[in-house]
């Protein structure tokens, strides 16, 4: 993705990052539950400059029929980036990257969603990235989890996600696009805060064992912050502002 | 709100201790965790969550309103607002002497017709079997269909039918509530019909609000004066 300055300073002498944040400060996050009338459940998230819309349908009939499972329901996730979501127009056809992200989001949601209650059905999650700015998979996973809860799909826990990483030899929270491109490591983490279980952990880059542990810890703490916003979004929609 | 009832979202710990998990909760160690958005209720020995969203899951003996989707030579397929399709066998309508050759299913029920039916059989392995061989069941000839969330049906009925009785009395409407969230309202006067539909929508939108009965009553009374 063009436009990156080769000489960009990712961390200044005061410990401030290229967008002015401190090392453990996430970007501005806004989550809204609902919004799509024709979907069973939906959510919209703004995560820094990322803008992502998620629609959930189901449980519903499986087509094609041979994909159905007589023991349990199936979860299908489609992560898609709009052609206008990035600087240079993207081909609307699913890319290798989008297929991979669809898969990792599906696998990150599966431990939370209780599909065994709906044998022979499917739950479809459609993720549309309207504007991308690094960390879309975490933002998409966070919003998908809210949309699933909004659809009333039984879940063991919510899944909150954020990326930790390393730039200028420092472990940071919430890697943005510049830091992702020019930084040393990027570690997206999906986490179930009440069950205290990690459902997604990827790592791109090189970390020492100590840095790895620190990254996981920073990421998990970040997920807890994201979870509070997920809770707020659902409380706002269903209980006004009076949610406990 | 009292301690026994609180708002929960998936993953929230409703309570801990030796309780029996009932609807929409799971047991994790000694914690009882909600699996859906709703209002938790703690009884003497059990815990449950009344959901505020979600699809209809058929239960045997439920009264549902179905919409005829299509038919084969032996049965009709009904849309019952669920993740499963309801099957209404032709024998149920034509009687025991039904013959697949002689009887044409479309003469009795056509695509788009509404049917009040009861879930006769349902388990994990099969689609729900519905039946109309009972009193007050069968094709619905008149009335307007109102769709609400299936999870809000208990609220619309109210304690011992208090809410629905109140709406029926105030508007002179006849209301058939399907457990699947489809409600048929019929009323001779257009104003009554409008008022009843508005009251049902109001319950649907504000199901979580305390003393909703009073608010609906107020709305019904106010409209009556104007």
Automatic annotation (TrEMBL), chain A:
CDD domains: RNase_PH_archRRP41 (cd11366). Its EC number is 3.1.13.-. Residues 26-154, 157-221 form the Exoribonuclease phosphorolytic domain. GO terms for molecular function: 3'-5'-RNA exonuclease activity; RNA binding. SUPFAM superfamilies: Ribonuclease PH domain 2-like, Ribosomal protein S5 domain 2-like. Its main location: cytoplasm. It is an enzyme of class 3 (hydrolase). InterPro entries: ExoRNase_PH_dom1, ExoRNase_PH_dom2, ExoRNase_PH_dom2_sf, PNPase/RNase_PH_dom_sf, Ribosomal_Su5_D2-typ_SF, RNase_PH, Rrp41. GO terms for cellular component: cytoplasmic exosome (RNase complex). Component of the archaeal exosome complex. Forms a hexameric ring-like arrangement composed of 3 Rrp41-Rrp42 heterodimers. The hexameric ring associates with a trimer of Rrp4 and/or Csl4 subunits. NCBIfam families: ECX1. This is Exosome complex component Rrp41. It comes from Nitrosopumilus piranensis.
From TrEMBL, chain B:
Residues 61-135 form the S1 motif domain. Signal peptide: none annotated. It is found in: Cytoplasm. PROSITE patterns: KH_TYPE_1 (PS50084), S1 (PS50126). InterPro entries: Exosome_RNA_bind1/RRP40/RRP4 (IPR026699), KH_dom (IPR004087), KH_dom_type_1 (IPR004088), KH_dom_type_1_sf (IPR036612), NA-bd_OB-fold (IPR012340), Rrp4 (IPR023474), RRP4_N (IPR054371), S1_domain (IPR003029). Transmembrane segments: none annotated. Keywords: Cytoplasm, Exosome, RNA-binding. GO terms for molecular function: poly(A) binding. Belongs to the RRP4 family. Component of the archaeal exosome complex. Forms a trimer of Rrp4 and/or Csl4 subunits. The trimer associates with an hexameric ring-like arrangement composed of 3 Rrp41-Rrp42 heterodimers. NCBIfam families: PRK04163.1-1. PANTHER family: EXOSOME COMPLEX COMPONENT RRP4, PNAS-3 RELATED. Non-catalytic component of the exosome, which is a complex involved in RNA degradation. Increases the RNA binding and the efficiency of RNA degradation. Confers strong poly(A) specificity to the exosome. This is Exosome complex component Rrp4. It comes from Nitrosopumilus piranensis. The lineage of its organism: Archaea, Nitrososphaerota, Nitrososphaeria, Nitrosopumilales, Nitrosopumilaceae. The gene is rrp.
């Amino acid at each position: 993705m063009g436009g990156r300055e080769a000489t960009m300073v990712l961390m200044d002498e005061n410990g401030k990052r290229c967008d002015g944040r401190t090392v453990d400060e996430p970007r501005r996050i806004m989550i809204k539950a609902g919004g799509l009338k024709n979907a069973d459940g939906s959510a919209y998230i703004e995560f820094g400059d990322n803008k992502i819309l998620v629609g959930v349908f189901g449980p519903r009939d499986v087509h094609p029929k041979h994909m159905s499972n007589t023991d349990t329901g199936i979860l299908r996730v489609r992560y898609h980036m709009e052609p206008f979501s990035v600087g240079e127009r993207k081909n609307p056809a699913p890319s290798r990257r989008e297929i991979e992200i669809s898969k990792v989001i599906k696998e990150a949601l599966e431990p939370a969603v209780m599909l065994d209650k709906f044998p022979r059905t499917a739950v479809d999650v459609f993720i549309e990235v309207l504007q991308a700015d690094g960390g879309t998979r975490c933002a998409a996973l966070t919003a998908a989890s809210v949309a699933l809860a909004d659809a009333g799909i039984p879940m063991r826990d919510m899944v909150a996600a954020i990326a930790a990483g390393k730039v200028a030899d420092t472990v940071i929270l919430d890697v943005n696009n510049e830091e992702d491109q020019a930084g040393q490591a990027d570690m997206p983490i999906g986490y179930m805060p009440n069950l205290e279980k990690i459902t997604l952990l990827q790592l791109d880059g090189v970390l020492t064992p100590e840095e790895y542990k620190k990254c996981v810890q920073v990421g998990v703490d970040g997920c807890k912050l994201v979870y509070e916003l997920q809770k707020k979004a659902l409380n706002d929609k269903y209980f006004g502002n009076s949610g406990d | 709100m009292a301690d026994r009832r609180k708002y929960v979202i998936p993953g929230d710990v409703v309570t801990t201790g030796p309780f029996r998990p009932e609807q929409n909760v799971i047991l994790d160690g000694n914690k009882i965790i909600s699996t859906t958005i709703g209002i938790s209720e703690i009884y003497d020995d059990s815990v449950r969550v009344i959901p505020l969203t979600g699809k209809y899951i058929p239960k045997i003996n439920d009264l549902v309103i179905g919409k005829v989707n299509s038919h084969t030579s032996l049965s009709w397929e009904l849309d019952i607002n669920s993740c499963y399709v309801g099957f209404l066998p032709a024998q149920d309508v034509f009687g025991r002497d039904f013959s697949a050759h002689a009887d044409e299913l479309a003469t009795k029920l056509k695509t788009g017709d509404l049917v009040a039916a009861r879930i006769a059989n349902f388990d994990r392995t099969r689609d729900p079997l519905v039946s109309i061989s009972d009193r007050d069941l069968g094709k619905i000839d008149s009335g307007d269909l109102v769709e609400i969330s299936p999870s809000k049906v208990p609220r619309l009925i109210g304690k011992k039918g208090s809410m629905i009785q109140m709406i029926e009395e105030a508007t002179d409407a006849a209301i058939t509530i399907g457990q699947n969230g489809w409600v048929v309202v019929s009323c001779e006067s257009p104003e009554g019909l409008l008022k009843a539909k508005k009251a049902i929508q109001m319950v649907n939108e504000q199901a979580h609000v305390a003393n909703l009965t009073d608010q609906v009553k107020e709305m019904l009374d106010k409209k009556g004066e104007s």
